[in-house]
Design brief:
Radius of gyration: 22 Å
Strand order of the largest sheet: 1-2
Order of helices and strands: HEEEEH
Oligomer: single chain
Structural class: alpha+beta
Distance between the termini: 18 Å
Shape: elongated
Strand content: 15-25%
Number of domains: 1
């Protein structure tokens, strides 16, 4: 029975991590077109999420947790010609976020599938516990 509890706990940790990942991706997508407000100012920077393994001594197993959420400063900010924008420089270019909607959508799909896989493990474990209790009643 403790193995089923461990499976439920592990899948719950995975779901929580993927839920945070989906939230970060949603934030990136929501700000994909948020240009810099002032000339020379940086626009919204894409956020990245990093996971870490954490040893759970009670289960003697590694669980997953969010290690950090950080700005992606490695990818440059693209510029777009918008001379009427308040954030345009003297040449009419505005810095745009370094968010690629295609990459974010692929990451979102992967996070959703990982979440669903963990949910499937949770459902199967719960069903196994219910069946075990049902068998014990007989």
């Amino acid at each position: 029975m403790s193995e089923l509890y461990n499976a439920i706990t592990l899948s719950t940790h995975g779901m929580k991590a993927q839920s945070t990942r989906i939230r970060v991706i949603s934030e990136n997508l929501a700000n994909a077109d948020t240009a810099a407000a002032q000339p020379g100012e940086d626009p919204y920077a894409r956020k990245t999420i990093t996971f870490k393994n954490v040893m759970d001594r009670t289960m003697d197993a590694n669980t997953v947790e969010v290690s950090k959420i950080a700005d992606d400063r490695k990818r440059p900010f693209p510029v777009k010609f918008m001379p009427d924008h308040p954030g345009a420089d003297e040449n009419g270019y505005v810095k745009m976020p370094n968010v690629s909607t295609i990459v974010e959508m692929m990451d979102m799909r992967e996070a959703q599938r990982s979440y669903e896989a963990n949910l499937g493990v949770l459902d199967q474990s719960r069903n196994m516990v219910s069946r075990t209790i049902e068998l014990l009643r007989q």
